[in-house]
Design a protein that fits this description.
Jelly Rolls, 6-stranded antiparallel β-sheet, 12 helices, Arc Repressor Mutant, subunit A
Length: 284
């Protein structure tokens, strides 16, 4: 069974996973619950195994789901939503979730969780509710109902991450303010303009000073604006080197580096080797 709308993609079929990975996985949030067997999937530089009762969560970034291998008895359910919808859901949750940015970074580094039977029951419940809505008769309220279901599922994940990260501090419990909205806009701009590498450019788009942008970025996420920009740029470079056939010169042009030589220097500084060697080493 594979179902999809402009907002949500659901599947429990291997062909559905393949189609979604090729057409949507680079721009959306994907949640996979493995019910039997396993899938080995290449993600963020390594091959990960998602085994029975494991949940895999991929939040939007520049990293696609790469090559994969599936066991003969693999069974799963999957939900994928576009990054724009994910941002809409999370921006609403920011009023009650003061450390979402920390959790987002944590998910990037820890994308797999082994679930208890109760947690699995919750996952299947939300999945089945979405299936019922998508298979039902179209109504004026169907999208709103699906968004409520998606919000409920998101809150369950946030609650789960609270247990992983420990209790909130007094400062983290403070109410959201304008700087939170500004930081949200910054990360949105960054995700859509990975070729822009100057703090000044982002500050100008947000109508604030570069110093203020770095201050709110560090206060909200623990990283400066320049660190966010560098990480996004490096992630985009890795993607083009590992998942496209573009030449080094073409990638440099696409990423708007002054020339291929400067691009090679930047890559060697941040990846420890030249673009050609990185591509050859990681694809070997």
């Amino acid at each position: 069974m594979t179902l999809f709308t402009d907002s949500i993609f659901l599947t429990n079929e291997v062909d559905g996973f393949r189609v979604c990975r090729e057409t949507r996985s680079a721009t959306g949030t994907t949640i996979i619950l493995c019910k039997a067997g396993y899938i080995d999937v290449y993600y963020r530089g390594e091959m990960l195994r998602i085994g029975k009762d494991d949940m895999f969560i991929r939040v939007p970034d520049a990293t696609e789901l790469g090559p994969y291998e599936i066991s003969d008895d693999y069974a799963f359910i999957q939900v994928t939503i576009p990054s724009a919808l994910f941002e809409e859901l999370m921006f609403d949750h920011m009023r009650v979730e003061p450390r979402w940015w920390q959790k987002q970074e944590y998910l990037k580094e820890h994308p797999i969780y082994h679930l208890t039977p109760k947690s699995i029951e919750f996952c299947e419940m939300y999945f089945n509710l979405l299936v019922l809505q998508m298979q039902g008769v179209q109504t004026d309220y169907r999208r709103q109902i699906m968004m409520l279901i998606a919000r409920g599922a998101t809150m369950e994940i946030l609650n789960f991450l609270d247990k992983e990260l420990g209790p909130l501090t007094a400062d983290q419990r403070s109410t959201i303010n304008q700087s939170d909205y500004t930081f949200h806009k910054f990360t949105h701009l960054l995700r859509n303009n990975p070729h822009q590498r100057e703090v000044q450019w982002y500050a100008k788009q947000l109508d604030i000073t570069p110093k203020y942008l770095s201050e709110i970025s560090r206060a909200r996420s623990g990283k400066s604006a320049s660190e966010w920009i560098m990480e996004t740029t490096v992630s985009e470079i890795k993607h083009h080197l590992l998942h496209t056939t573009l030449s080094v010169r073409d990638i440099a042009r696409l990423m708007e580096f002054p020339n291929a030589s400067f691009f090679c220097q930047y890559t060697k500084k941040h990846l420890g080797m030249s673009p050609s060697r990185y591509r050859k080493t990681k694809k070997a």
